[in-house]
Amino acid sequence: MHILILGGDGYLGWPTAMYFSNRGYDVTVVDNYMRRNTCTELDVGMLYPVPTLIERAKIWHELTGKEIKVVIGDLTQPEVMRSFFKGGVEYSWAIENSFTGIPDTMIHYAEQPSAPFSLINYKYANLTLGNNLLVTNNLMFALKDFARDTHVIHVGTMGEYGTPNIDIEEGWLEIEHKGRKDKFLFPRQASSLYHTTKIMDTDLMWFAVRMWDLRITDLMQGPVYGMETEDSKIDDRLMTLFNYDEIFGTIVNRFITQAVVGYPLTVYGKGGQTRGYLNINDTLQCVHMSEKTPPKKGELRIFNQIMETFSVNQLAEIACRVGKSLGYDVEVKSIVNPRREAEEHYYNPVYQGLIDIGVNPHYLTDDVMAGMFKVVERYKANIRKDVIFRGIKW
Ligand code: USQ
Q1: 198 is catalytic
Q2: Model pTM?
């Protein structure tokens, strides 16, 4: 089985590449280093240095004997995308420089993933819109022209739904109106431009599925935490990139880093903002189970990819408790929310579909969090307090 990972250098992309490679799949990764380059441009700092994608593929090969083919290329360029289907791929690193043929499954992570980034100013808003929508549209046209059977797994976001005052279903909602019924995409209302591009992705994919009978899984993922996976444990140089800054760091990773370095935990506003969370290892499981059970042709299958829900206050409480038990002096501080979002709201999403296809959830227990504290502690000297909060306003 041949898997192509778009965005293979990112927080989720690289662990996904190792995961599938370790399980016998032929894996090719593509990335344009957008995440790394913007991290450098915005001077966000990272917990530890991460070898380049090519270096990581070489390390992986040395340690396991397995090959992850690497392409450094920009998927907003249609010809780069199309080369994976019609040949002419320019590998940046591969043991054998031969075309592996049309991928059976494509995992689409090649997107700018940060909400604050998309609202820094018009330039970063355009970058987010341009990158995310062009990559998705290039993918849809390549599938239409060359590979209508290839299964695409796209990572969307729970943020597409926002925080409505009704239960959130898995992607679809049956509506009865004036005595008639029909099924529609669940109403979406994002609270950042980044999240808006994910809504637009879903719309592009739904259009392509209806027109060209494609098979697509859209995973509505919540904020992810963690850095170690089974496959990275063999060598620290294989650990995924880890951000704790305001722009690219997700909240659990941020709170642990803040606790370790003695920076008061930054609870935005009232702290009642509730989201669905998952461990990075569960992202891998969800993608794997989706790959093993592809939807039928002409189906846009949507799963809510979360394992449990927490409010910001609850996360601060857990980080505080675990930090204190490990001897850190942890403080929690409520600060004026730089974002426009509901700080107290109803939140009741359904998340059963992935469990039904075989995913085994891992939860954010005190032990799991303590494990993360221990990894962050090893790199404490690298933590920069100046990047933790800059106050990017909506
Ligand atoms: N928050 C704080 N303090 C902080 C950081 C965040 O109170 O220091 C709050 C935010 O205001 C928000 C919540 O915590 O209410 C989650 O924030 P986040 O930065 O962890 O996550 P978010 O910006 O929503 O984006 C992340 C990923 C994105 C993914 C999304 C899933 O960066 O790629 O799509 O989580 S979801 O949140 O379900 O939309």
Answers
A1: yes
A2: 0.98
